[in-house]
Amino acid sequence: MRILKTQAIVLRYANFKEADRMLTLLTPGMGRVDAIARGCRKPKSRFLSTSEPFCYGDYVLYKVHNFYIVSQAEVKDIFFDIREDVDKFAYATYILNATEQAINSNEGNYPLFHLLLSTLTYLAYGSTNPEDITRIFELKFMDILGYRPQVYRCVSCGNDLDKNFKFSIDQGGLLCPRCYNRTSNGYTIQMGTIKTMQYILEMDMKRMDSLKMSTNTRRELKKILSNYVVYYLGKNIKSKDFIDKIGDEC
Ligand SMILES: [Zn+2]
């Protein structure tokens, strides 16, 4: 029997048997861990809140054969404010789904864990709107996974940045007019949006609330970043369609 003591965030669960759940956890040191919370759906279970999505806590798990069983769990934050707000809930669910798509078992990723934790914290308690927080998450998420876009010069020929550049998802960054005429792809992107992307990539997450986006930047980043994430993860993300619709109503 092997014991694992770890911090974790619950990404998802699947109910099974009468009162159990299989939890999908993100841990800093081991990446994805699947663990059974026995009896957690009983009204008085001590695992009731530590088996809910978004829950951040300290977990003690023990390994039996190929899976883990939750033996102790203590809530650090359940991010109640996210559950109480439809928009926050939708963006946070998309963020959990995207994270789940990107992680594997036995592949620890401390920066990713901290990114998810601070993103949920700002969604719950910060003053920045949930859509902007989601865009910041997407860009930093891609950077952490090794898909940092080139936003300082032409990704193809290295030309210095000017206002006529476009953004190419499959090339992984900005293209100068000469290069995009040759490949004829790319999203229109204004200098304000490019500067915002540069700022986000350099920004400490503690400064999340300091970032203000114009309506145009918000519109351009929505198209570019949400598609960028799908392209580099190589799969669609559950709940993306839903947040695409919320954004359009604003
Ligand atoms: Zn070029």
CATH topology of the largest domain: de novo design (two linked rop proteins)
Shape: elongated
Overall SS class: alpha+beta
So, the CATH homologous superfamily of the largest domain? Recombination protein O, C-terminal domain
Structure explained in plain terms:
The structure is a single chain. This protein folds into two domains: 2-77, OB fold (Dihydrolipoamide Acetyltransferase, E2P); 81-249, Recombination protein O, C-terminal domain (de novo design (two linked rop proteins)), CATH 1.20.1440. The termini are far apart. With 250 residues, the chain is an alpha+beta fold. A five-stranded mixed barrel has the order 1-2-3-5-4. The chain has helices spanning 80-83, 86-102, 110-125, 130-144, 177-183, 191-202, 215-233, 240-249, and strands spanning 2-16, 20-27, 31-37, 56-64, 67-77, 166-168, 173-175, 187-188. Helix 3 (110-125) packs antiparallel against helix 4 and helix 4 runs parallel beside helix 7 (215-233). Zinc ion is lined by residues 154, 156-157, 159, 175-176, 178-179.
